[in-house]
Amino acid sequence: MRVTMTSAAARTGRTNEDFTGALPTAAVLIDGAGIPGTESVCRHGVAWYASRLGGSLLGLLSLVRDRGLPTLLAEAIEQVTVDHRSICDVTDPISPSATVAVLRLSDGLIEYLVLGDSVVVLDRADGAPLVVSDPREVIISRSYRSALRATAAGSEEYHRVLRSLCARRNQPGGFWVAKDDPRAADEAITGSCPVSELTGAVLLSNGAGRVVDRFRLTDWPGVMAVLESSGPAEVIDLVRQAEARHAVAADDATIAYCTDLGEV
Fold first, then answer.
1. Distance of CA 256 to the CA centre of its chain
2. Mean pLDDT lowest for which of 27-41, 104-118, 230-244?
3. Could you give the residue ranges of the DSSP H alpha helices within 85-219?
4. Measured between alpha carbons, how far is residue 44 from residues 47, 59, 94 in Å?
5. Where does residue 97 fall: left (phi above 0), alpha (psi -120 to 50 degrees), or beta otherwise?
6. What is the pTM of this model?
7. Which of 2, 4, 37, 115 has the most CB within a 10 Å radius?
8. How much is the average pLDDT of 92-120?
């Protein structure tokens, strides 16, 4: 499997809180998340959490071939939690978390996992692409938008509402991300598809997925066409141009584009 990766921070001088990495048989994308004040409960920060989780998961994927993706993700979450539990308040609602997307080549299948609002797209030889996403965070966040818009950013009330939203993470009836509880991995969306039915696949952070779900610049078949002709950097460039036109705050944007899926 050939993997072409591109990742861009939201703006110059800002730490990129996304992570992506690959093996000959797997690709991982981690989209770190935090809110103002995270540094008060975790000395390491969101970028550290994302890169440590991604590195742990890649290590497990390279060494352990006989366990399911949720099991490996749960173990990676536990490893990172142990790394900083003694000095950070990992259970606080605003401690670092992340969304996760994984592809693995195994016995003629492409296995996938999505936890949170990252996206996996499998480009099928016959028919429309299979788009794998988890809408729970987006659906729940909508109920908080009006309250956030009605308060001044950075105010005490604004942070109260934001904390309330974060408290819905990894709770029944809420949304699920990688954080401090490995049981969240059981809530991931998973599945598989024969490699023979696919021509390619891509993992996108939500900042890159804006090209379709926010700005409607193209559809998912269109994204796959751009990736094939110009590569992932072109997709991120389209997103940055749209953010500038619409005066929308940029987000870290990361893409891992997988081709030659049957080759190791």
1. 11
2. 27-41
3. 136-149, 156-166, 206-213
4. 8, 21, 13
5. beta
6. 0.93
7. 115
8. 95
Distances (CA, A) of 62 to 59, 65, 248: 5, 7, 39
Closest to 252 in 3D by CA, of 34, 25, 3? 34
Nearest to 137 by CA among 101, 178, 168: 168
What residues are paired with 23 via a beta bridge?
26
Q: Which residues pair with 6 in a beta bridge?
A: 255
Per DSSP, what are the bridge partners of residue 120?
132, 203
Angstrom CA distances, 178 to 125, 188, 227, stand at 32, 10, 28
Please check whether residue 121 is in contact with residue 130, taking contact to mean a CB–CB distance below 8 angstroms: yes
pLDDT for position 264: 63
Residues 6+ apart with CB under 8 A from 228: 200
Q: Which residue has the tokens 């299948």?
A: 109
Q: How many CB atoms lie within 10 A of CB 240?
A: 17
> DSSP for 2-41?
EEEEEEE-SSTTSPP-EEEEEETTEEEEEEEE--TTGGGT
Q: Classify burial at 79, counting beta carbons within 10 Å of its beta carbon; exposed 0-12, middle 13-18, buried 19 or more.
A: middle
Q: Which amino acid is at 154?
A: G
Helix or strand or coil: residue 192? strand
Sheet of 97-106, strands arranged across: 18-23, 26-33, 97-106, 109-115, 189-194
User: Token pair 């751009």 is at which residue?
Assistant: 226
Instruction: Kindly report, residue by residue over 145-158, the tens digit of the pLDDT.
Output: 878 778 877 788 88
Residue 88 predicted with pLDDT over 70: yes
Measured distance CA(157)–CA(239) in Å, rounded:
31
Tell me if 9 sits within 8 A of 249, measured CB to CB.
Answer: no
Distance CA 14, CA 180 (A): 25
